[in-house]
Amino acid sequence: MSWTVADAVDYKGFPADKSKTGGWLPAALILVIELSERLSTMGIAVNLVTYLVGTMHLPSSTSANIVTDFMGTSFLLCLLGGFLADSFLGRYKTIAIFAAIQTLGTGALAISTKLPQLQPPACDTASGKNCKPANGFQMGILYLALYLIALGTGGLKSSVSGFGSDQFDEKDEKEKAQMAYFFQRFFLFISVGTLMAVTVLVYIQDEVGRSWAYGICSVSMLISIIVFLCGTKRYRYKKCMGSPIVQIFQVIAAAFKKRNMSGPFNVSLLYEDTPEASRIAHTEQFRFLDKAAIVTEDDFEKINGKTSAPNPWKLCSATKVEEVKMMIRLLPVWATTILFWTTYAQMITFSVEQASTMERSIGGFQIPAGSLTVFFVVAIMITIVFYDRVIMPLWKKWKGEQGFTNLQRMAIGLVLSIFGMAAAALSEMKRLLVAKSAAPTTQTLPISVFLLIPQFFLVGSGEAFIYTGQLDFFITQSPKGMKTMSTGLFLTTLSLGFFVSSFLVSVVKKVTGSRDGQGWLADNINEGRLDCFYGLLTVLGVINFAAYIVCAKWYKPKKAKPAVQMSGINANGNNDNYDRC
After folding, report:
1. Contacts of 116 (CB under 8 A, 6+ apart)
2. Which residue has the higher pLDDT, 400 or 450?
3. What is d(CA 185, CA 193) in angstroms, rounded to the nearest whole number?
4. Which membrane topology term applies here (predicted)?
5. Residue-averaged pLDDT of the chain
6. Where do the domains of the chain lie?
7. Model confidence at 12, in pLDDT bands (50, 70, 90)?
8. Each residue of 481-528: pLDDT tens digit?
């Protein structure tokens, strides 16, 4: 057995020695930085809406959009982080740089929540009126802090799990088994970080002070960076091979330049330079892209009288074209899973605002509104354990299969999200009835916050299915050389889901607000009709599910590969099998 890893080097650039690099210790150091990232991002996101409404005096709909835009940008920037890691920086430098950026962001947020000059004056406590909203400068500082955090999060998410998997050699059976356990621990660390965020950190925000909580996030991330850098000599590094995004643009550009050409009658005449074992069979769909593999004299350049390799922006191999086709075939399923994350966005915005108006006391302890999302996290964990320990064994015994297919899991997630929004609409109807009978100055309505548990639990269980189903689908149904890109495609469903939420809130606010100045999404949640908004999401969910069924039936899966088990999924949305950097 070789004592070096074939495709990895040490920090000096020499072949990585297995006895001195990689393994559990370096992987554990990487897990520490992921724990801090989850603590910071989720601790800020789940309770940010209460700060925007209560301290910055912004309307509830505006506050919800700020949160969803922040989260959407975080996931969208994963594409930027992945591109930089694959093409220029490598995963190690990407993690270090973007972790430092997130540290600056949390530090800036701590300062903005501490200084009175960066907040509007308090409302008239007697009447609850005369609330002056934050001015442009105050909001500008807040936005700067939030989007520094979003930039840092995006860079980290793109590289952390991939760099962790780099510490194990897939060609070594022992290390390959260790890698599977690494991802289980990765999921555990993410869950622990999220639980700490929605319980301890949210409690500190509400009872001690937000500046203290955000300061803890900044210090935690700084310590994690130091711990991460301590492993520099022990890490294994893989060479950057370029981003697959470039390949997609090359195929499209080459096909467009040759759009007026006729393809060959025999597809074997298309250009091919891929080794036989790695070639992909030609397919009839999207045949216009085949023109990128038509050979012309202009595709080759001569240097010193010798013909050089073809210009990749003019001529692409048939296999590269087929890889792009495979990615295109994923798009209908991709598009019909976006709405789930729009539903998810309500759990950290309007649902938290609902909780802030309800009775949250247990004995002498008052549950922070943002901590209600703990039921969301618990639902995910319970669902995963139930699936692994109950459903999978029964399904294997009954059907002879390892579990639901990735498309079936996504379908279950969509159905649960529909029921979650229906439950949210019903609970909001009951809350509004209590609000109408209460005095206008009542701060806490006489109705238990535990009425909201069904919506958190249903959508949380839905995430356990759709998240793992999506990640399995995009990893196993994408070309081997584009797994980084396919994971990025998966992350964009989260990003676009948050942006669709912001768009939908703005449209509903404008359309329904013209009727009486308040509408469904009134500035005061007790004066609006949030139940109608939840009902709209339920209807949209049903329509989207019908579209998903059509797309799932249209999709022709590639040859089956071992399914990604729910217990071993990387729950922050990153690829467990990076092939490039």
Report:
1. none
2. 450
3. 12
4. Multi-pass membrane protein
5. 84
6. 1-240, 244-316, 329-498+526-575
7. confident
8. 666 667 777 888 988 999 999 999 889 988 887 555 578 888 788 888
CB 168 within 8 A of CB 27: yes
Angle between helices 406-437 and 530-554 (to 10 degrees): 170
Token output for 370: 């943002």
Task: For residue 110, give every residue at least 6 positions away whose Cβ sits within 8 Å of its Cβ, in sequence order, or none.
Answer: 210, 211, 212, 214, 215, 217, 218
Fold of 1-240: Growth Hormone; Chain: A; (1.20.1250)
Q: Report CA torsion sign: 60, 64, 69, 70.
A: positive
Q: Look-up: residue for tokens 């005095």?
A: 439
**pLDDT tens digits for range 272-316:** 888 877 788 888 888 889 888 998 878 887 666 566 778 888 888
Measured distance CA(523)–CA(195) in Å, rounded: 30
Q: Nearest-CA neighbor of 274 among 329, 325, 240, 316?
A: 316
**Which residues, 6 or more positions from 298, have their beta carbon under 8 angstroms from its beta carbon?**
314
- Please say if the pLDDT value at position 559 is more than 60: no
91: its two tokens? 């995963």
pLDDT at 562 over 60: no
Alpha carbons 218 and 140: distance in angstroms, whole number: 20
Q: How far apart are alpha carbons 450 and 375 in whole angstroms?
A: 10
Distance CA 353, CA 524 (A): 10
Q: Which amino acid is at 310?
A: P
Rounded Cα distance between 581 and 576, Å, is 13
In 227-243, which positions are buried (b, 16+ CB within 10 angstroms) versus exposed (e)? bbeebeebbbbbebeeb
CB atoms within 10 A of CB 143: 15
The region of weakest confidence among 139-143, 216-220, 397-401, 405-409 is 397-401
Mean pLDDT of 2-10: 78
Answer whether 1-240 and 329-498+526-575 agree in fold: yes
| CATH numeric code, 329-498+526-575 | 1.20.1250.20
Per DSSP, 313 falls in state T
Contact 412, 552 (CB under 8 A): no
Q: What is the DSSP string of 242-306?
A: --HHHHHHHHHHHHHHTTTSPPPSSGGGS---S-GGG-----STTGGGGGGG---GGGEEEETTE
User: What is the C-alpha separation between 71 and 521, in angstroms, rounded?
Assistant: 21
| Tokens standing for residue 146 | 């939030």
Helix, strand, coil shares of the chain as percentages rounded to 5?
70, 5, 25
The answer to whether the beta carbons of residues 61 and 521 sit under 8 Å apart is yes
Q: What is the pLDDT of residue 563?
A: 40
Model pLDDT, residue 560: 41
Full-model pTM:
0.78
- Report the alpha-carbon distance of residue 201 to residue 207 in Å, rounded: 10
Q: Are 240 and 87 in contact (CB under 8 A)?
A: yes
**198 burial type by CB count under 10 A (0-12 exposed, 13-18 middle, 19+ buried):** buried
